[in-house]
Amino acid sequence: MSEQALSRALSRRSQLARLKKQVSDLLFHAYGFWGYLFLYFPIIILVVFSFNDSRSTAQWAGFTTHWYADMLKDHQIILSLWNSLFVAIVSTTVSVIIGTLAALAMERYRFWGKLMMDAVLYLPIIIPDIAMAIMLLIFFDISGIGFEPWKVNFFGAHLAVPYSVIIGHVAFNISFVAVVVRARLAQMDQVLEEAAQDLYADPWRTFWRVTFPMLLPGILGGALLAFTLSMDDFVITFFTSGAGFNTLPVRVFGMIKKGVTPKINAVSTLMLLFSLMLVAISLILSRGGEKGDSSGNPMF
Amino acid sequence: MSETYAVELKNVVKQFGEVVAVNGISLRIRDGEFFSLLGPSGCGKTTTLRLIAGFEMPTSGSVRIYGEEQGYLPPYQRPVNTVFQNYALFPHMTVAQNVAFGLEMRKVPKDEIKRRVAEALALVRLTGKENRRPKQLSGGQKQRVALARALVNRPKVLLLDEPLGALDLKLRKAMQSELKALQEQVGITFIYVTHDQEEALVMSDRIAVMNEGNVLQVGTPEEIYEHPQSRFVADFIGKTNFISGKVAVISGDRVDFRLPDGTMVAATLPEGAQVSAGDMATLSIRPEKIFVTPEGEQPLVGDAEALSQVSGRLVKIFYVGVERRYIVALADDTEVEVRVQNLDRRSRRCQPGDRVTLHWRRAHARLLKE
User: Which pLDDT score, from 0 to 100, does residue A280 have?
Assistant: First the structure.
């Protein structure tokens, strides 16, 4: 009798606990939902209105892809896209090399002034873009480097890219590459390099056969980050490009001044897609890197 | 003509800043020997190994391998290979690629590499695992890959840094005998670093016991166990009893020793020990070398009359299957442990609280200076 009462009381108690959990789960999910909505609703609007069959970006008037066609016919946009790609590729390549070397120096060697270099290396991550942009602008001006263009034929597109823009992008990308590569290096057991040396590999071959392959996921991750940042950068490009040079973000900024049309939405949607793609690749690569530690990396 | 040693260290000192890791040690390791560096952590044994491998450069002193001064040669120019504590296998390479690494670096022809890798993997019984990644192997298998990766290069000396430390007890025991058999098979000089005294005793031809950057004693396992020359060695290797007292008479290697309660016992003086009559000193006696009987009785051995006798009170008995451990308190409350195989009937009549007599042979009581 009393046993039954006890078990009933217990089951009521567990029911109550279950109800509590359901309510808290619901609240938790709702909170998450609103958070995401807040973050992504503007993006959804942006994408949706890139298909709007009207010059207005506020009122829906039916589906069209003609803004995309319009965009592709706009030589200014295409040229700025090539400019963006060129700047991103060159600055990424240079900053990956310098950034990786910097990471190696910081993680593997002791030298005079290391502490100061540690601070200076990460400065571009911390300081506001605008401060960096103005610093670079003043630097190019007074150093006499100026805004000379690099005239280059890039896959058939005739570009004139100021060296100053590329140098500016390299300047901030080095920091990001160095941070990512250094994190990877810190995880890597130094005894592996000793093992290679014990097996007759000199420092050069130790680097290429052991250190580099193990760092590669980090280096690629850093490269993708640098590439994305370079493609997206507006402030530093705007200040270091002199007159008449546009990357895609700078071009979009110029178009907005003449009024917002769904064509801008279309360009932005494309940039968004591109960025998402890069993030996806970098995620796959970094997962591949983890696998390299556990069960073999299909990349190598 | 002087003998050429596999490895010869002369007055090697290694300092890290203010810290002296290795304090002027000299060692001669013979060709084909299984030589262990044994000591507690921080005693300098791993640093010594790293000095031989070339990962550390000596602050002063000389390191010779087969007569050749290694000086400041980097590790990749030394004729030694290392098995690292946590194996240090290259995670981005397969088992076969790991094992082939050293041969590739020395530009051995491809078909020879293939043959030797297969041989090395067969030697450690890993044939068929060539294309596995290190992460897909068990601890014991990784251990064997690390061995194969070193042995495939046919080094003159193989250095092993606590290679069994990461394995569980059972596997460690199995690997101990496997490693010893392997060493006899390949005939390479092994220098083995360990803090596990039992492991060192089981496997080694000779052992160097180290503490605080110094080599305290070098000898065969039996010499080290039976004839420790210092309190540290006696204490670190196996279990021992220390009994304090005063040196009464010295004649040759025989010492008459007075315990605090006035009992006189006989002890042996280790070679080269600097002791004179009247000094305070300590006896070291292994627990299995002592007989325990009810008070006034003799143990059932032929030379019972010649044994030293000390009386005490039985405090406790621990039964551990193969043996019984008797804890006996002497007059000054020094506790002495006695281990008796479960064969001896005389000791079995003793019960906790009883008065008992301890007996030992002079040779087994070693005098160590305080």
Answer: 85
